[in-house]
């Protein structure tokens, strides 16, 4: 038989068990009230290899592209307060997902925007949810999944250069569509290449079978016509 715990140990166990019960009750009451509690770990400074990787990522950030993207977003959305210059201020401007939601909605006809809620929120999970909605809408708009940043890249500011590339591709795609919804200077972004599909009839395809491709050689050009045969003397006039 196991020995009975001492009175001191039993009191400690009861106190610990009562603290757990209080914590569970508080979480249950918070969930019933519609609140959500997050325990987010504070990230400390990076050292060693992590610091070197982060420095390389930060060097890819383009301040000139930041100015172009800011001008486009202000012109495209309208009625938005501009941010202060700098990577940190640009990240804070986009962090809650409100500006991004208004941006993607402005590229659709009025009332047909994919992001339903563009109201600002101070809650972390609400901000990340709005960023995720923008990313899904950007992919539906035509941005390749490989050109889309991750939510933590913006919300934690880990890779703002990737955020810039996503917005640059979004602007270039909006210019390429030429649907009248793009606002700003089209020269801000490079146009995306478009598919040039061609349909040939069966007769046209059969005609192509009679053409000798250059990779197979050619039956035209230089020939030996008029040349003397092997072993015959040259006639010098």
What's the layout of helices and strands?
Layout: H1 7-32, H2 48-59, H3 63-77, H4 87-94, H5 98-106, H6 124-141, H7 151-155, H8 160-177, H9 202-209
Helix pairs in contact: 3-8, 5-6
Structural features, described:
- The chain is mainly α.
- It is 50% helix and 0% strand.
- Helix 3 (63-77) crosses helix 8 and helix 5 packs parallel to helix 6.
- The chain is elongated.
- It starts with 6 loop residues before the first helix and ends in a 28-residue tail after the last helix.
- Residues 9-42 have low confidence and may be disordered.
Distance between the termini: 128 Å
Cα-atom radius of gyration:
33 Å
Q: Strand pairing plus helix content: what structural class?
A: mainly alpha
Largest sheet: none
Mean pLDDT: 77
Total beta strand runs: 0
Principal-axis shape equals elongated
- The fraction of residues in strands falls at under 5%
Give start-end ranges of low-pLDDT stretches: 9-42
Report helical residue fraction.
40-55%
Keywords:
237 residues, mainly alpha, 50% helix
In short:
With 237 residues, the protein is mainly alpha-helical. It contains 9 helices and no strands. Helices cover 50% and strands 0% of the residues.
